[in-house]
Structures are given as C-alpha cells and as structure tokens.
Amino acid sequence: MSVFNKTILITGSSDGIGKALALEFSKLGANIILLGRNSDKLDRVYDQLDQSHPSQKHLILEADLALLSNESAQEILVAISQEFEALDGIIHNAAILGTMSSLVDYDLSTWDTVMKVNLRAPFILSKTLKVMLEGALMPRLIFTSSGVANVGKGFWGAYSVSKFGIKGLAEIFADELETTSKIKVFNFDPGKTRTNMRASAYPAEDPRTLKSANDLVTCYLWFFSSDSSHAEKNYFEFSELSEIASAP
C-alpha cells in the first residue's frame, strides 16, 4: 500500500475528513500524527488507530492553530523529530467556517480567527516542517481547497477568502519547490462531503445525499502513490481525481 510505514501529519484529525483519513491510513500501516485542539477527541481517535504493525507508532499533538506562532511551530517540529526520522506528508485538513455573513457585517475578530486557522497556520507549519519532509523519499504537502475558492460567493466571507489564499499558497509552494525539492505539492477540493462543517453551512441539506469522508480515502491514497509523482498539475477536484485514483 502507498502509505505503509509512512509518517503522515493530519491537522484537524479529531473529526470529519481528518479523522477518517487517520483511521483508514493507520489500517494500511501508516504512522499517524494527530493534530487538533481538543485533547479528549484526539485521545478517542488515538485509541481507535490501528497498531497491528510491529514498527507502527502514532503521536498526538494538541495545538490551537488560531494561536500558532513560529515558536510553537518549532515545538511541534521538535516533538515530531524526537519520534520520527522524517515526515512523508502533511495533510492540511483543519479549517473553521466562521460566520455566514455579508462582508460589511462581518465581525473582525471572527475574520482574524478564520484567517489564522485556515491560512496562516498552514503557511507556518509548512515552512517549519519542510526540513522533515525533505528527509522522505516521496514527500507530499497536501492543502485542502473548496468550491468557494474558485469564484467569489456572497456571504462566505472569511472562509472563502482563506481558501482563495490557500490556492495561492499551494501554487507558490509548488512553483518554488518544483526544481529544488522532492516535495510534491497538491491542492485538493474534496467537494460536497458529509461533515459537521457542511451541515453548519447548509442546515437544510439532507446529509444522506452526500458522500462520506471515507469515500475520499482512495483520492488521498493516490496523492501518496508513485503515480502522483508524474502529475503535471497540483490542483484536483474530487470528481476528477476519484476517476484517476480508482483507475486500474
């Protein structure tokens, strides 16, 4: 399997897509680094991680990404380096919705928090942990996009702006690292998925009409496969990648 014996950091891994990836990747022999802000939820996910492979080990990192700084990111780097020699991938999954509000009515403190969690933290973590990614054979840096990052959509406020920013961040990292590093950068839009955030944004939507977080696992496995090394672009949407990833 493409993630066997690989060490993967997943932010926002206590719920939703992050949790699903952590559980499924651990079953395939990956070492999982759980990063989130709720220690109780992280403990519960950790207890569910598969540990049947002799060399497998997992790590919990409790961190509030809204408060992340260069100093606290360095502490995360030290904590990971004490347990693992290299980092095969970072999945930047953590994000908060903020409020569904017009821009003129948007609360500034909420705006700042959304930007810190959704955009500033992935930037800080990526540049700080790059040194550990360089130690892997096929390192991956995976950002999470959204449909509201393609065209400005009213009332999506800070969340939409942060995802526009993530798109730019991923493209700049990809361009800068293309000829200087083994790190492959991807920006992935999972599409409509049955998560708590989706339910908050679309309270009238029937969740039974949406795919589950587990339906995304095959896509993320493709990112860590040798096949993805030959990808000529770094941005994928679920509808497109699901066909590529499931191809024989």
Task: Provide the CATH architecture.
Answer: 3-Layer(aba) Sandwich
Regions with little confidence, pLDDT below 50 for 5+ residues: none
Q: Within the largest sheet, what's the order of strands?
A: 3-2-1-4-5-6-7
Fraction in beta strands: 5-15%
Give the tally of structural domains: 1
The sequence of SSEs as H and E is EHEHEHEHEHEHHEH
Total beta strand runs: 7
GO molecular function: oxidoreductase activity
Keywords: Oxidoreductase
Family: Belongs to the short-chain dehydrogenases/reductases (SDR) family.
Protein name: Polyketide synthase
Keywords:
SDR_fam; globular; Polyketide synthase; Rossmann fold; seven-stranded parallel sheet; 8 helices; 248 residues; oxidoreductase; alpha/beta
